[in-house]
Amino acid sequence: MTVTRASVGEASALILAGVVPLSAERVALDAALGRVLAEDVASTVALPPWDNASMDGFAVRASDVRDASAAAPASLRVVGTIAAGQRASRAVAGGEAMRIMTGAPVPSGADTVIRVEDTATEGDRVLVRDARDAGRNVRPRGEDVLPGRPIVFAGTLLGPAQVGVLSSVGAARPLVVRRPRVAILATGDELVPLEEFPRVEAGERIVSSNSYSLAAAVRAAGGEPVSLGIAPDEPHGLAERLRAARGCDMVVTSGGVSVGDFDYTRTVVESLGGTLSLWRVRMRPGAPLGYGTLFGMPWLGLPGNPVSALVTFELFGRPLLRTLGGHRRPHRRAIDVITGEAISLGAPLTHFMRVVLEDARSGAPVARLTGAQSSGMLTSMGAADALMIVPPEPLSVAAGTTLRAIPLDGDLGGGTVFPA
Ligand code: AMP
Ligand code: MG
Hints:
Blueprint: E1 3-6, H1 8-16, E2 24-26, E3 41-42, E4 52-53, E5 57-60, H2 62-65, E6 74-82, E7 96-100, E8 112-115, E9 119-122, E10 125-128, E11 138-139, E12 150-152, H3 160-168, E13 175-177, E14 181-187, E15 191-192, H4 197-201, E16 206-207, H5 209-220, E17 224-231, H6 235-243, E18 250-254, H7 265-271, E19 275-281, E20 283-284, E21 290-294, E22 297-302, H8 306-324, E23 331-332, E24 335-339, E25 343-344, E26 350-358, E27 366-369, H9 378-382, E28 386-390, E29 396-397, E30 402-407, E31 413-414
Parallel strand pairs: 1-19, 6-7, 14-17, 14-18, 15-16, 18-22, 20-26, 24-27
Antiparallel strand pairs: 2-13, 3-12, 4-11, 5-7, 5-8, 6-10, 9-10, 19-21, 21-22, 23-31, 24-30, 25-29, 26-27, 26-28, 28-30
């Protein structure tokens, strides 16, 4: 059954329903940046592994320094030194202090590290001139990580901090989800690859910019683009090209999904045994969107207009790719914005408007349109910081209204909730 004219929210739910992460592989930790963890990782060790000093100073007993002041310093006998990487040779007794460096194990008997700035040494004795550190500056064993506890979870995108945490617990080859391989096919007799740019200069053809922008979008989302080139507006040639998608994890086509005389993508997908579960979404840009399966993998039929193709990939293709790629939070995090100008919609559709965000002195950023919102103007997409979501109703939105927007940079996962 094909759902037609779905709302953006319905389309998003339908496309993501039942999508499960791909298989996993182990990679060296230094190649794990940007990958998604496929299993919870627990530690076998405590971190820190021992009670240690958080300052350079003197390890002492709090009871010996509790009443210390500049006027009446506590005088303690210095019985040794512990550098980072060393262990104390003996315990600290009452009336004693041990010189200690940041990170070094606190000797037994001591419960306090007095910062060096509050001390003065006199022969083999140290004078403590302030009581503020009594009972402080000891980082207890296991305060960060306890053995046996999971500390990084399946579905986490590995950034610099996660890579550091994994290294600290010895995870040299973390298990990560395979990068989704995404077949990309452009359709249209008017299109040429970059190699044929002279035909563009001659006024005969246009560059298939979707081939490049979608490959880049796939890469930016953590996938591996597989180019199937450009198919002609003719069923046999189109079918031929689409067959090469076998072996990938997802297929993205652009163009030919409208109702023009040469729009064959849908029928060719069905003739190859594929299914069409969604056609057309109540949105602008991007209304003529198709979704289904082909050769057992998800197929997204994006519209051909360069802005529509990128916007629909952003809204539906990226979360699909990231779900396949194991992300726990496949959507971008939407934010509140204040519209900088009045907006009037030409039709009751959910609009995704290209906006530039200006930081306000307080509160939400102000969103200004990049200019005309024609779906053929790819430069306006390049100028945009975010897609502002304008609900289908009311048709007029006053300047100063709070709306939601999807920033086009940043990888923080979130729960983009689309209006009905
Ligand atoms: P279509 O969806 O095939 O009707 O195409 C809609 C518009 O998008 C037409 O102006 C096409 O020339 C243009 N278009 C289609 N595919 C691409 C592409 N791969 N790169 C750039 N423009 C395209
Ligand atoms: Mg076309």
